[in-house]
Specification:
By secondary structure, the protein is an alpha/beta fold. The protein has 2 domains: about 5-140 and about 260-305, Rossmann fold (3-Layer(aba) Sandwich), CATH 3.40.50; about 145-255, Phosphofructokinase domain (Rossmann fold). About 40% of the residues lie in helices and about 20% in strands. The protein has a 7-stranded mixed beta sheet, with helices on both faces. Helix 1 (about 20-35) runs parallel beside helix 9 (about 265-280) and helix 5 crosses helix 6. The termini are far apart. Bound molecules: adenosine-5'-diphosphate and 6-O-phosphono-beta-D-fructofuranose (F6P). 6-O-phosphono-beta-D-fructofuranose binds near residues 130, 173, 175 and 257.
Length: about 325
């Protein structure tokens, strides 16, 4: 028989992402509407181990849907990777009467959720990461805002780069994934896109491309470099030396993780938050919510973690086709 859920907890873990607040708000208000109590766990698994647990009412999540970051705070917690840490976390949940937890985070956070589920605390994961690197879902909370923030910043760099007839290398976030880079590559009309999934690029080809484009009359050359490739500053030095064209590197960094969430991030995060609570109330555990082909669905965490996500080859080719 499915365990009766009376109280749930919600936490955000790993890197923050715009839209996490919309998800927290949806979790809190859906639970209250269903007659369930909600506790906010501050600073991810670290806050759970430190018992930083607060009661959440509908008014605690007023006026947060438009705010970046996460009102609960987030953390990376080494202790929770240990069996002892996980056991302690499960005991703290029991002590506070928490029957189920919604974990908003990425792949790493799901591993923690899986451990809690094995120890009898029902868990549902929501995909919260700007990196879009979760295989079971076409959408992750924060990607849309982050990619728009990066795109707008790149437009600005491109203005000055074109005026000075420079080459620019702009490094975007994404850890080991190239989704922000691919999207900006297309949305900003980049001449080259360097992705960790395609590590076999040849710097000499880029140099030849820059020289060819200059001959064709292009006044700028924009290279979007993913964080997973890195080394933008040294690459800029080498390109300038080889082409004789002034080359500057810009690393966009943490600005990509901040800011008010886009309508898409507010909307999807809200639906996913409600979906997570309803999934817990069906007695399900060890699940993660995803979005595929226009539907919100849930998967077993282990199955989700075993799925593989690849850069779309056609989209990558189109990016180059359009940058002639
Ligand atoms: P993300 O959730 O964005 O992938 P991390 O990989 O940093 O970010 O994971 C966030 C947190 O999840 C970690 O700091 C840790 O507390 C927890 N976590 C990560 N991996 C595991 C694991 N294998 N077992 C238990 N908890 C984990
Ligand atoms: O996962 C989101 C992300 O911003 C990645 O793009 C980046 O590699 C990482 O987090 C940075 O993490 P931290 O905040 O620990 O420096």
């Amino acid at each position: 028989m499915a365990k009766e859920i009376k109280t749930i907890g919600v936490l955000t873990s790993g890197g923050d992402a715009p839209g996490m607040n919309a998800a927290i708000r949806a979790v809190v208000r859906t639970a209250i509407a269903r007659g369930i109590k909600v506790k906010g766990i501050k600073k991810g698994y670290q806050g759970l181990l430190n018992e930083e647990i607060i009661d959440m009412e509908a008014r605690n999540v007023s006026d947060i849907i438009q705010r970046g970051g996460t009102i609960l705070g987030t953390a990376r917690c080494k202790e929770f990777k240990t069996k002892e840490g996980q056991q302690k976390g499960a005991e703290i949940c029991k002590k506070h009467g928490i029957d189920g937890i919604v974990v908003i985070g990425g792949d790493g956070s799901y591993r923690g959720a899986q451990a809690l589920s094995r120890l009898g605390v029902n868990t549902i994961g929501l995909p919260g990461t700007i990196d879009l690197d979760i295989a079971c879902t076409e959408y992750t909370i924060g990607f849309d805002t982050a990619v728009n923030t990066a795109m707008q910043a790149i437009d600005k760099v491109k203005d000055t780069s074109s005026s000075h007839e420079r080459c620019s290398i702009i490094e975007v976030m994404g850890r080991n994934a190239g989704y922000i880079a691919l999207w900006c590559g297309i949305a900003n009309g980049a001449e080259d896109i360097l992705l960790p999934e395609k590590y076999d690029f040849n710097e000499q080809d880029i140099i030849n491309n820059i020289i060819e484009n200059r001959k064709k009359g292009k006044t700028h050359h924009l290279i979007i470099n993913a964080e997973g490739i890195g080394h933008s500053t040294s690459m800029a030095r080498r390109i300038e030396a080889a082409t004789g064209i002034e080359t500057r590197a810009t690393i966009l960094g943490y600005m990509q993780r901040g800011g008010s969430p886009s309508a898409k991030d507010r909307f999807y995060a809200s639906i996913m938050g409600a979906y997570a609570v309803d999934t817990l109330l069906q007695g399900k555990t060890n699940r993660v919510v995803g979005y595929q082909h226009g539907e919100f669905i849930d998967f077993d965490i282990e199955d989700a973690l075993n799925m593989e996500k690849c850069i779309n080859e056609y989209q990558f080719k189109v990016a180059y086709l359009l940058s002639v």
